[in-house]
Design a protein that fits this description.
- The chain is 41% helix and 18% strand.
- Strands 7, 8, 9, 10, 11, 12, 13, 14 and 15 form a nine-stranded antiparallel beta sheet that branches. Strands 1-4-3-2-5-6 form a six-stranded mixed beta sheet.
- Helix 2 packs across helix 10 and helix 9 crosses helix 10.
- The longest helix is centred in the middle third of the chain and has 31 residues.
- About 9% of the residues have low confidence.
Length: 602
């Protein structure tokens, strides 16, 4: 239970700093300081910048220039503490946790539209925005809290309502933790483990958001312009909330999110897809189709992972003739890519252009793509929403609406997006969770197409990283246990010292291998005793980023060409430098303790 709690907490922390929550951050920041001026006035003090002169020479009235009201002596001048940051974040966490677990059940029981919660959230955001601009509207929103005796708790009522609205609109990037919570909520299978996981995830999410809200409060407290123009700030914050509601309704924010790199994906996978996390989260599912565990996420070779599970429990189809269903058995002889996605998932949106390129490039060679839309949130179950989202993204291949997540379960899936490759005989041969490794996935597609028809003529690779190969140059290669590509030899052991051996025979082009003792980490590989690294590359020059203190002996095609002396922080070192591109086997003999980060080629 404690392990599950820690996994949920860390998953929430990572989610709260990912690109997917950027739309709510400006609102959280401004909500933290948008009422400070009114709080001061409520305490009976005028709102002044530091150094402003007291009106009336210290008396209760001002002479000549007009009066300024002051508090009576028995009500001294310290304004009540602004608790809006806590109210906003508390509302968001309560709303998100409650409706993620119980929203689908409540909506189904009441017979309400699947996207009703999204519209309620948008409506609350607009109402709060209007309340900040027009005080009578805010007083109306605070009425439900009027019976609470503390006046300040009263004042935070609208901030809590704002948090409730944001919780309904909060669509974070989903990893295995959120996937487990969402699926349990969608099915109404809520155990004590799921409740603990949800609460710990929500608390983890709240911490960074609360820091952001408190930063907004501190800015409002410290900057004189905020205190002098409190009313103007509230109007600006209210206007921003209304604009955000319109942007969310029109899906404008998605374009901004798609343009940003998924900078938290590596850390998320390191924690949420670790062995400990898999063991904890797997207990929340059944043991069907366990043969799929033969495959590893993003493996660098095709494997046999058992027969492709059926596409069961599909609500409906579109982008097929007459919207008729597709039977996987009818695709024998073809290579099939199954893509699990949702139309509002930013990670999925960023993957769509790659899938579209593959579908167009390899359709005539025998590739078929099927999108399995497995909803993360209730509003994603509505067929018209999915059809509109697919059209906007350019998804024109067959799509199955897996509203009850039966097919998701069949494939033992844990991620949005996830891609499964099925060969011409109907066997799953490869899968890739999340974004990235598009060049490797395309390589697997090409290999399966050649296996299905050895005489097939394939077009040039489509992916940008593959274009590097077509451009006569080995691509950049990270020495990271999660991002490495082209590795062959002894399987990598994550974050522990292990002994490796070069494979027998020649090392193929664009492949690398280890020998001796290495520790394979997420950021770098650390050399141990008798550490060696081999890489067959094609380029004019080869370079590597190294750190630590020691030396590296460089061999090209078996001959020593130079010795590098490495000192200090990570630095780029030139290994080879030729006038023209050439293919060569590079071998590095690395002193113990040195750290290697990445290869680049020019």
């Amino acid at each position: 239970m404690i392990t599950l709690m820690l996994i949920g907490l860390l998953g929430g922390l990572i989610t709260a700093v990912s690109p997917c929550i950027l739309p709510v951050l400006p609102v959280v920041f401004l909500a933290g300081g948008s009422g400070r001026g009114e709080d001061a006035q409520a305490a009976g003090k005028p709102v002044r910048a530091p150094g402003d002169a007291e009106a009336g020479g210290g008396g209760g009235t001002a002479g000549g220039g007009g009066a300024v009201a002051t508090a009576p002596p028995e009500a001294p001048g310290r304004p009540p503490r602004n608790r809006r940051p806590y109210a906003v974040v508390a509302g968001l966490v309560v709303s998100f946790a409650f409706f993620t677990l119980l929203g689908v059940t409540i909506i189904s029981a009441l017979g309400l539209p699947q996207d009703i919660l999204r519209y309620v959230g948008l409506g609350l955001l607009v109402l709060i925005g209007l309340g900040l601009i027009f005080p009578p509207v805010e007083r109306l929103l605070e009425k439900p809290f009027a019976r609470i005796p503390q006046r300040q708790v009263n004042k935070e009522g609208s901030a809590f309502v704002l948090g409730l609205g944001l919780g309904l609109l909060y669509v974070p990037c989903a990893g295995p933790v959120l996937a487990a919570i969402t699926i349990a909520g969608a099915r109404g299978e809520i155990s004590s483990d799921i409740v603990v996981l949800t609460l710990s995830f929500a608390v983890g999410t709240a911490v960074p958001l609360l820091v952001f809200a408190l930063a907004g409060r501190r800015v409002a407290d410290r900057i004189a312009a905020f205190r002098r123009r409190a009313r103007g700030l509230r109007i600006a914050a209210g206007s921003l909330m209304i604009v955000l509601a319109l942007a969310l309704a029109l899906d404008v924010t998605a374009a901004i999110q798609r343009s940003l790199p998924d900078y938290t994906s590596g850390v998320q996978r390191k924690i949420e897809d670790s062995d400990a996390a898999r063991q904890q989260l797997s207990g929340l599912y059944d043991n069907s189709n366990k043969e799929l565990s033969r495959c590893e996420d993003g493996a660098d070779e095709l494997r046999s992972c058992g027969p492709a599970p059926a596409l069961d429990g599909i609500d409906s189809w579109f982008n097929t003739p007459g919207d008729r269903p597709v039977d996987l058995k009818s695709l024998r002889g073809k290579v099939t890519l199954i893509d699990f996605w949702t139309y509002s998932c930013i990670n999925c949106q960023r993957a769509v252009p790659h899938i579209r390129d593959w579908e167009r490039a390899y359709r005539d060679a025998g590739l078929r793509v099927i999108g399995v839309h497995s909803p993360e949130f209730a509003f994603e179950k509505k067929r018209s929403n999915v059809v509109a989202g697919a059209e906007k993204l350019g998804v024109d291949w067959p799509v199955a609406l897996d509203n009850d997540l039966d097919t998701w379960d069949n494939y033992r899936n844990r991620f949005w997006p996830a891609k499964y490759l099925i060969d011409a005989e109907g066997t799953v041969r490869y899968f890739k969770f999340g974004e990235g490794q598009y060049d490797q996935t395309e390589n697997m597609i090409r290999e399966l197409l050649r296996q299905a028809d050895p005489t097939v003529v394939l077009p040039k690779p489509t992916d940008r990283a593959m274009d590097d190969l077509a451009a006569d140059r080995t691509p950049e290669t990270y020495l990271s246990n999660l991002r490495i590509r082209g590795y062959v030899g002894t399987p990598l052991v994550d974050d522990r010292s292990a002994v490796y051996r070069f494979p027998k025979g020649d090392l193929p082009l664009n492949k690398l291998s280890l020998d001796g003792t290495w520790t394979a980490g997420y950021e770098e590989f650390t050399a141990g005793r008798e550490a060696r690294l081999a890489f067959t590359y094609r380029a004019k020059n080869a370079n590597i980023v190294l750190a630590g203190t020691g030396k590296v002996t460089v061999l090209v095609n078996g001959e020593v060409t130079k010795t590098l002396r490495v000192t200090g922080a990570p630095t780029l070192y030139r290994l080879t430098d030729d006038r023209d591109p050439r293919t060569a086997r590079l071998e590095l003999r690395v002193d113990e303790g040195l750290q290697a980060y990445a290869f680049t080629f020019g």
